[in-house]
UniProtKB/TrEMBL annotation:
This is Rap guanine nucleotide exchange factor 4-like. PROSITE patterns: CNMP_BINDING_3 (PS50042), DEP (PS50186). Residues 172-181 have a biased composition (Basic and acidic residues). GO terms for biological process: intracellular signal transduction. Residues 163-193 are annotated as: Disordered. It comes from the Eukaryota. Residues 44-147 form the Cyclic nucleotide-binding domain.
Length: 399
């Protein structure tokens, strides 16, 4: 690890580094202002409340890694949390615990954060290696725990989806994913019993909705047909966006509901596989059976306490669920927003990183027939934070 040290009288760029090199107790108000000005240039930090930013300025440290430096290895016990200020780092995972067998599963860019395993002293779930010269903000364990207790939602929103969400999973989940790679995986995923964690998240959301906005779950009539105890897609998105800073956009909320729908924690009344931000009806698993009892006061209180954690969990797995839903669409049905989401995913696939923007766009718009032979090539994108391994199939072109 290479740490940059500076001396007085240098450029403004080096000046803020010099301020971060000081011990927290030695930083003046002017030092904090200089650091704050630099952090506000990073888009991800602009969402933070001012008190949180100020505390980060007083306790964080600066690290600069040259290309190819290993920050920490899979299995290490961590001591710090990190945020990327410039450059990028590869996330490498080994299924055998042998470092030489590690494969790169994603890349962390500017504005992403990692290392939250220090909250419970669990071993690092991946090896982090600088892909290029990179600047990091580092916060030590004790200070980060204190910040997390006060500003969990804001800090969770900074976590890199590929890595932060991977840490909430398990190795067993990843082995199961590989066994499910077949043409029926979509239906099998949708029809299976929800995992315990997803089932609980669905129950928590239902209970809180019944407590705060009970009008959202009711019998609805459409075209002379009555649909019992269901919600409207747009209302579910509206409600979720207002609950937490972790829910960044409406499309993010759609992905979170899609994650529940894929595993049966939420169902479309006509068994459609995709969640849509439209006037369509969806029903929670607990409401599938008639005369399901309403949650009692104790259950409502527990659900209120669990809501932030449930939303954080869904916020982490939602982007992958949204990507899978988009990839199930035929190319002609994909919107501009859909193509942008796929494009962002392609940027994390090392095999496609060298392609130009023009070729990446052509890749997204490729049309193909499933029964054709010898006209496709595929890239398998291992998404370790979700119950699926995505395979991108792309039509070959003459050039």
């Amino acid at each position: 690890m290479v740490v940059v040290h500076t001396s007085p009288g240098l450029s403004p760029l080096a000046e803020w580094v010099c301020c971060l090199d000081k011990r927290p107790s030695e930083r003046s108000g002017e030092d904090v202002d200089i650091i704050l000005t630099r952090l506000r240039e990073v888009k991800a930090f602009q969402r933070f409340p001012p008190p949180l930013l100020l505390q980060i300025c007083t306790c964080a440290f600066y690290e600069c890694l040259e290309k190819g430096i290993t920050l920490f290895r899979q299995g290490d016990i961590g001591t710090s949390w990190y945020a990327v200020l410039s450059g990028s780092l590869d996330v490498k995972v080994s299924e055998t615990a042998i470092h030489q067998d590690a494969v790169t599963i994603c890349t962390l860019g500017i504005g992403t954060a990692f290392g939250e395993s220090i909250l419970d002293n669990t071993p690092r779930h991946a090896t982090i290696v600088s892909r290029e010269t990179s600047e990091l903000l580092r916060i030590e364990q004790r200070e980060f725990k204190s910040l997390w207790e006060k500003y969990r939602q804001s800090l969770a929103g900074l976590l890199a989806p590929p890595y932060g969400a991977m840490e909430s999973g398990s190795n067993n989940d990843r082995h199961t994913d590989k066994d499910n790679m077949n043409s029926d995986s979509v239906n099998k995923t949708h029809n299976k019993v929800p995992s315990e964690k997803l089932q609980r998240a669905g129950k928590v959301l239902r209970n809180v909705i019944l407590s705060r906005a009970p009008h959202m779950i009711r019998d609805r009539k459409y075209h002379l047909k009555t649909y019992r105890q269901c919600c409207v897609g747009t209302e579910l998105v509206d409600w979720l966006v207002l609950q937490s800073a972790c829910v960044l956009t409406r499309s993010h909320a759609v992905g979170m509901w899609q994650a529940l729908l894929e595993e049966g924690g939420l169902n479309h009344v006509d068994q459609e596989l995709g969640f849509q931000d439209k006037y369509l009806f969806y029903r929670f698993l607990d409401d599938e059976e008639e005369d399901t009892p309403l949650p009692g006061e104790e259950e409502k209180r527990e659900s209120e306490e669990e809501l932030p954690e449930s939303i954080l969990f869904l916020a982490q797995i939602g982007p992958d669920a949204l990507l899978r839903m988009i990839l199930r669409k035929s190319p002609g049905q994909r919107t501009g927003d859909d193509l942008e989401i796929i494009y962002d995913e392609l940027l994390h696939i090392k095999a496609l990183a060298h392609l130009s923007n023009t070729r990446n766009t052509r890749v997204l718009q490729s049309k193909h027939g499933e029964k054709d032979t010898g006209s496709h090539w595929c890239v398998r994108s291992d998404i370790h934070r979700a119950p699926c391994i995505t395979t991108l199939c792309i039509t070959a072109s003459p050039d």
